[in-house]
Amino acid sequence: MGDKSLHKKNYIIEKAREVFQKKGYRAVTMKDIVDACGISRGGLYLYFSSTKELFEEIIGQEEKDAKTVIAAARDKDTTPATLMFVYLNEQKKEILKKNDNLSAAIFEYLFENKASKNDNPVIKRIRSDIDELEKLIIDGVEQEWIDCDNPKAAAKNLVYTIEGLKVTAQTSGLTADDLDKEIEYIMGTFGLVVE
Amino acid sequence: MGDKSLHKKNYIIEKAREVFQKKGYRAVTMKDIVDACGISRGGLYLYFSSTKELFEEIIGQEEKDAKTVIAAARDKDTTPATLMFVYLNEQKKEILKKNDNLSAAIFEYLFENKASKNDNPVIKRIRSDIDELEKLIIDGVEQEWIDCDNPKAAAKNLVYTIEGLKVTAQTSGLTADDLDKEIEYIMGTFGLVVE
Amino acid sequence: MGDKSLHKKNYIIEKAREVFQKKGYRAVTMKDIVDACGISRGGLYLYFSSTKELFEEIIGQEEKDAKTVIAAARDKDTTPATLMFVYLNEQKKEILKKNDNLSAAIFEYLFENKASKNDNPVIKRIRSDIDELEKLIIDGVEQEWIDCDNPKAAAKNLVYTIEGLKVTAQTSGLTADDLDKEIEYIMGTFGLVVE
Amino acid sequence: MGDKSLHKKNYIIEKAREVFQKKGYRAVTMKDIVDACGISRGGLYLYFSSTKELFEEIIGQEEKDAKTVIAAARDKDTTPATLMFVYLNEQKKEILKKNDNLSAAIFEYLFENKASKNDNPVIKRIRSDIDELEKLIIDGVEQEWIDCDNPKAAAKNLVYTIEGLKVTAQTSGLTADDLDKEIEYIMGTFGLVVE
DNA sequence: TATGAATGAGTCTTCATTCAT
DNA sequence: AATGAATGAAGACTCATTCAT
To answer: Cβ contact (<8 Å) for D156 and C107?
Structure first.
């Protein structure tokens, strides 16, 4: 695949992402993609042979995990408390882009692909997030910023809560204010205060 | 609609629920329902004109909310701490019946019907759960069983976490042990100990 | 399936046979059948879900085997010599209906389904023809009408030759005269004379 | 067309033959050829504009006729009986290479192209085989090796039988033993004994 | 009320064929 | 000569929905 077709592949991915954001996962047909891209049916099949394949390519590139977010924010003066806050706020921003993010599609995709669970990027991201947050909490405890008896359980609880916020935002709607209060509460459970 | 028709309608709902539990929401066709019920296509249309209509009827009857669970467990000697534990265990039981509950189907339904949010039974149930748990926490604080500064925020956080557990169980899988640890952690955040 | 739909099924089979006679096996599409029957695509699928299924139904009804032909011609005064002649002439008649028989389609079908060989009606018919002709030859030898050292080998040879005539008629064309001469020759190998 | 092009054309024919042997005639697509040759779609079209054209080129080169086989075996000491045996054995060898010969593809091709019969190489080969075998039989009769009243009819019968064996091998399967017995029987009809 | 045959629109998928480079 | 991306037509198959009985 030459430079040119790589370009086209990326173009398709770009357009398809928009479609998945708007319509979720299951509702998307190859025709939707074809129409969004303005290419021929056959043309699309040159690059992707199903919406599933296409979607997997997209989420492979998509997931912004805790590691990345935290790493980006970390410098020598950043405290664990600040990092936690940055992470939660990043999640908030993602959640609020409701029609502009892939969570609905991702959930649908996962419901449909329960069987082949272990190798999918979302589950990997969840596991890695738990690990990363655990490390962050342990750091915070050691530096006496964070108050926590059971860092692993706390990390898991946090990740489940964030998944809950994502899904609730999709299904029932959450406002910026709802999320701010939630962040404040979570910070409080670690003995941290939002300034 | 006479008694006989009502009886048949309930029969259809019953069978359809099983179908939705097994296949989710979007994947279910009118034919699936017809086959499960052993009735004719035309016959089904006399009662329900789409899977959506049928599904809405089902979830209207479905939701076991916190109020019901807590009310069932309450008697004059039950402490708020015990009620909290009972509630969390009820959730655990529901979550573990993974292929035998409607959550996957409900999530799918909601993703597909974001627009008509406010009148959907799930959002009503979430609101009512928050209220009910808030009351429980306030009771617990007053009776000095529970330790909590901000009962409303705590109730919301708990509901979001449970939504997160439900969805994670569907998409990534959770074991009984995972849930026990999570329950223990949650109880701990209220200063409660699982015996 | 009620009387009415059985009637329709037979109607489809009837029309489909004409299509297979005209176009062979592989070239026939569900659309061809639909057009020939003047019904809708979906309608056809109610009865048959592939051209293969339809074709198998047709050839199941189709094969006129040696047993049937010979049985039909047999009465107490019929000699083995006559029966042999009747059988060969029946084959001749079938072969000459070139565009009106299914042999081309059957050969194509068999080429495409070599794997599942043993249970197909054509192979069964070939085996049964060999047996039937062997019996006929043995009868003929016993009654001193037919001259043959190895009835089984002779029966096989005859069946192969007839298959060869069928296929040659399809691929290269054979006239009534070609077939008459061939029948005369075959009769001769058994010491029989065509009157 | 220069030497280089001719070389490439032959290369394509070579590879395509393998494809036709494996997949028959109708099932072969231009893409199959392209893949087998490792050339581009456009490149193939420079040489052949359809699978039909390509296939006709192949069978034009293909046929090993009786003339060639018999000529190859003939030397001054070879008897007609031996030549007959050599010819039959050559056919046997061809027939047993079931997935490695073109007969299935050729039959399919002929079924699909009945119209343009007279100029097709198969019918020419059949005619020439009949002639060649007739000559052989006549020779044999003159040299008192072969016993036959009607050499032309016998030659035709033999050719039809061999066509029947080819097609039966493809559709129903024939073993080496089946063929040996058949050869023995055929030799017997000419008063010849297989040693 | 109830049946189930029938329809036709919609989607998926594959291929021969073209054409700019 | 050669490439391979792109097209669009053709066929398979499924479903929601209707309607005569």
So the answer is: no
